[in-house]
Structures are given as structure tokens and as C-alpha cells.
Write a structure and sequence with these properties.
single chain, Ubiquitin-like (UB roll), Helicase, Ruva Protein, domain 3, 54% helix
């Protein structure tokens, strides 16, 4: 018995197919290289083809199940080919012919013709056009101007809406419901399940609440924050810009008092007084809430907490813009945010004359939207997408843009 037969590897039976539909069975030892297997296949399906040495390199074997191209230098065993596997023998695609020099020159010429003009060419082409002075900062500040002006518009529209709604005999009942809805503000809620998970780990409840609010109710991030700040002496201090714990209870009591209200037997004057009180309570509930992370980051730069909160209020809770405001001329000032627009101005008159706005001002939800946007400008998108308040906001924006261009 020959030695090589004693130590020969396992023989595999492989099904080989070609693109032309030929199919046969190849029996090869598992230590056969893919290149040798390919030669055997070519001898079977293309007799005499091996006279050209390039024939082997111009073909490839593909494992049908995994769609993997087999490497010539590896063995059948190394390619993890199993008994009765199916292989495809395929001729490689010929590489595209190299372009002729004439074609390359024509392509380069075409690219040059399509190339954008340089600065000199633009100046030469526009030399005879009349010069215009364009303030490039106008476009940059248009959005900010609208946000600033929108606050003034909202302040004045709120006054108009309050007067209109006070004439509605059902206004008090409507706003009692609205007042109750505001008590369920999502932003003040803490995820009870997340809080329970943290307290069960041994963290104090007040500290866990703070961690969840700082980390957008993420249990994992809150836990990391609690571990990282475990030895921080200020870990239990209330978040900057937020009211102490006893304040919400006080607000809840006010809500209860407002909800109790006068009986239906009392006069209209007392109902109006009650409506005014409800408006005040709604405003207090919608007080601006600065982003705690932004407050901490800006205070670490050396700014006082009050001026940081003012900066964030003026700049819609945007940290970078607030930082620029603190380092700049600080305009507009926080006091400017509470000023209304000139009620005799063409802009305000055009807004009041719009039928969509007129109808919207009689809807209590519109007033709530105005109040919310006034103190939390980042919520504007929510109200723009609301089917009741969105059309009103769209008309205000269109009127502002139209008059701003004239």
C-alpha cells in the first residue's frame, strides 16, 4: 500500500455546474487546492482549453450556498467545502478596454467646458450690471428677528384673546378644564418605573429624580450620573432654574382653588374675575424652564445663575446662542420679551383682520398655545403641527414675512 494513500485526506464528492448548463460530479481529496480543482473542471467541460495558461485565471469557482468566490491558493478543506456541496464554474468578466488617447482628450475637453466659471470670469460677465448694496447679515438675522417680533405679537394677541374669551359664557368652565390639563404637564412627570428601578438599587428618591431629569429619563445614564456624583457635596442641591420641591404643591393648591370656582348662581362680574385669576395661574404654570444641563455648563464658565437663566430664556434654551448673548451686547433684554407690539402698527392690524386669526382667538386652545410658546419657544413646532392652532400660526408667519419684504 502506498504511503500517500494511507495518509490521504477525506475524498469529497462535489457537484459542479457551468453557466451553459453542464453539470457533473467531481471527486477530490479535501487537501486539493482550489486551483487544481478548477483545472480538473476545465478539462472536463472545456477539453484542450488548458493549452492557454490564462484559461485558469480567467475562470472562478463559487460556492453556491454561501455565494463566496473560492481562493485559488486555499485547499478545499480551508474553504470549508463539505461533501455534496454545489460549486459554480464561471468565466470572469473581461476588464473594460483602456480608453484611447483621443477619447481621453475629448472627455477632458468636455469636463473643462462644464466647469463652473472662476471669480475673474464672473466679474467679467457681470461688469456692466448695476451695483447693489446687499447686507449679508439680513438673511442671517431674519429668523431671529421673526422670533423676537413673534414674542411681541403673542403678548398682544394674548390680551386680545383673553378679552374675547371673557365674553364667552362657558369660558370659566373651559379654562377650568385647561387648568386641570396643565397640572398633568408631561415635562414635570417622572417615569415611575425608572424611579422605582433606581430606588430599588439603593439611591435616595430625591437624588434619583434629579438624575432622571438630567438624563431625559434614561435609567442607564441616570445610574451612571448617580455613581459619578456620589461624593459630590452638591449632589442633592435642586437643579438650577427650577423651583423648590414645595412649590408644585403650592401650585396644586392654587389649581384646586381655581377648579372650585364660584357657583353658577354668582354674577357675571365674579366669573370674569375668576377667569382673570385662572389666566394668571396658567401663566405661572407656564413659567420658563431653563435646560438644567445648559445652566450648569454656562455657570461653569463663570456666569451668574440669574444671567444664565435670562440668556437661555432670550435664546430659546439654546446653549451656544445664550453664550454669545452673554458675551455680546445682551440684546434683546429679558424685559423686552414681555413687551407687546404696537397695536396700531400695520403688522398687528393685518394680523387682527385675518379671518383665520379672528376665528382662532375665540378658541381657548389658541390662548394656551400662545401662553406656552411665549414661555417655552421650543414648543412652537408642536403647536404649528396642531390642526387647531397650526393654521393660526401659519397665517401670522405669512403676514409677517409679507410685510417684512415691503
Amino acid at each position: 500500500v502506498q504511503e500517500e494513500k494511507i495518509f490521504a485526506g477525506k475524498v469529497l464528492r462535489l457537484h459542479v455546474c457551468t453557466m451553459e448548463g453542464a453539470e457533473w460530479l467531481e471527486e477530490v481529496p479535501e487537501d486539493t487546492t482550489v486551483e487544481k480543482l478548477k483545472e480538473r473542471c476545465l478539462k472536463h467541460c472545456l477539453p484542450g482549453s488548458l493549452e492557454d495558461p490564462k484559461t485558469v485565471t480567467h475562470h472562478k469557482l463559487i460556492h453556491a450556498t454561501s455565494e463566496k468566490v473560492l481562493t485559488d491558493t486555499k485547499t478545499v478543506l480551508e474553504e470549508n467545502i463539505q461533501d455534496r456541496d454545489v460549486l459554480l464554474l464561471i468565466k470572469k468578466r473581461a476588464p473594460p478596454p483602456l480608453p484611447k488617447m483621443a477619447d481621453v482628450s475629448a472627455e477632458e475637453k468636455r469636463k473643462q467646458e462644464q466647469k463652473a466659471p472662476d471669480k475673474d470670469a464672473i466679474l467679467k460677465a457681470t461688469a456692466n450690471l448695476p451695483a447693489r448694496s446687499v447686507d449679508r447679515t439680513v438673511a442671517h438675522h431674519n429668523m431671529r428677528d421673526f422670533q423676537t417680533e413673534l414674542r411681541k405679537i403673542l403678548v398682544s394677541l394674548i390680551e386680545v384673546a383673553q378679552k374675547l374669551l371673557a365674553l364667552n359664557p362657558d369660558a370659566v368652565e373651559l379654562f377650568k378644564k385647561a387648568n386641570a390639563m396643565l397640572d398633568e404637564d408631561e415635562e414635570d412627570r417622572v417615569d415611575e418605573i425608572a424611579l422605582r428601578q433606581l430606588t430599588e438599587m439603593g439611591f435616595p428618591e430625591s437624588r434619583a429624580v434629579k438624575a432622571l431629569r438630567l438624563n431625559h429619563m434614561s435609567v442607564t445614564q441616570a445610574m451612571e450620573w448617580l455613581i459619578e456624583h456620589a461624593d459630590d457635596p452638591s449632589v442633592d442641591a435642586p437643579l438650577p432654574g427650577q423651583t423648590p420641591a414645595e412649590a408644585p404643591a403650592e401650585g396644586a393648591a392654587s389649581s384646586a382653588e381655581a377648579a372650585a370656582g364660584p357657583s353658577s348662581e354668582e354674577g357675571g362680574e365674579e366669573a370674569k374675575d375668576e377667569l382673570t385669576e385662572i389666566f394668571k395661574k396658567i401663566r405661572r404654570k407656564r413659567e420658563f424652564r431653563p435646560d438644567p444641563r445648559a445652566v450648569i455648563a454656562l455657570m461653569e464658565m463663570g456666569f451668574d445663575e440669574k444671567e444664565v437663566v435670562d440668556a437661555l430664556r432670550v435664546n430659546n434654551n439654546q446653549q451656544n446662542a445664550a453664550c454669545e448673548w452673554l458675551l455680546g451686547d445682551r440684546k434683546p433684554s429679558p424685559e423686552d420679551l414681555d413687551k407687546g407690539i404696537d397695536t396700531n402698527s400695520p403688522l398687528f392690524q393685518a394680523i387682527l383682520e385675518n379671518p383665520v386669526v379672528q376665528l382662532g382667538l375665540t378658541n381657548p386652545k389658541t390662548l394656551l398655545a400662545f401662553e406656552d410658546m411665549l414661555e417655552n419657544p421650543l414648543n412652537s413646532t408642536q403647536w404649528m403641527n396642531d390642526p387647531e392652532t397650526g393654521p393660526v400660526m401659519l397665517q401670522i408667519s405669512r403676514i409677517f414675512q409679507t410685510l417684512n419684504r415691503t
